[in-house]
Design a protein that fits this description.
20% of the residues lie in helices and 24% in strands. The strands form 2 sheets. Strands 1, 5, 6, 7 and 8 form a 5-stranded antiparallel beta sheet that branches. Strands 2-3-4 form a 3-stranded antiparallel beta sheet, with no helix packed on it. With 180 residues, the chain is an alpha+beta fold.
Amino acid sequence: MKENRALIISLIITFLMFYACKKETTETPQAPSAPKKQAFSGTTSKSLSSPTFQNLSAKIASMPKYSFSGVKDPFYTILLQTPTKDKKITQIKGKPQATQKYEIDKYKLIGIMLRKQGSSAIFEDPEGKGWVLKEGSFIGNEGARIKKIQQDSVIIEEPVGDHLGNVKYVERSISIKKVP
C-alpha cells in the first residue's frame, strides 16, 4: 500500500514538473537585434499558487515521516565487528595522583616488602623517584590498580575498552628484574 502511494505521488510530481515547465508561446519572432531571453526563467508565481500544486504540497506535508533510528546499517562491514586490539582507557576520574603521571610500562618494580600489616611494592618512575604503593593503589595514567602483591611479583588490574566501548579489567603481572 505504501509502495503504491509513493508511486502515485512520484507520478503526480513528475506530471506537475512537466506541466509547470511547459511554456506556452504565442509571441511572434523578434528581430535579431533584440536581446534574447534566458532559456530557463525559473518557476513563476502562477505555477506555485496553482491549486494542484497546493493540493500536492499539502498531501506531501501530511505524509508520515520515516525515522531511521534503530535500523541496521546495510553498509556496515562484518570485519569492523571483529575485535582487532583492545584499547587502554586513559581517563582518570578526579585529580590524578603522583603515581598516575606516566604510562604503566614506564614504571620499574624495584622491590617488595612483605609485612604482617600489609605488603608494599616499591616502584621507580622515569624521573628516578621511588614510590611505595600498597594493594588498591593506582599506578599509571591508564587507571590501573594494584590488586595483589606477591613475594616476587605484583598483580595489576587495568581497565581495557573493546571496540564496542565495553570496559573489562585485565590482570597483568609485573616481576622484579633479577640481576644475573
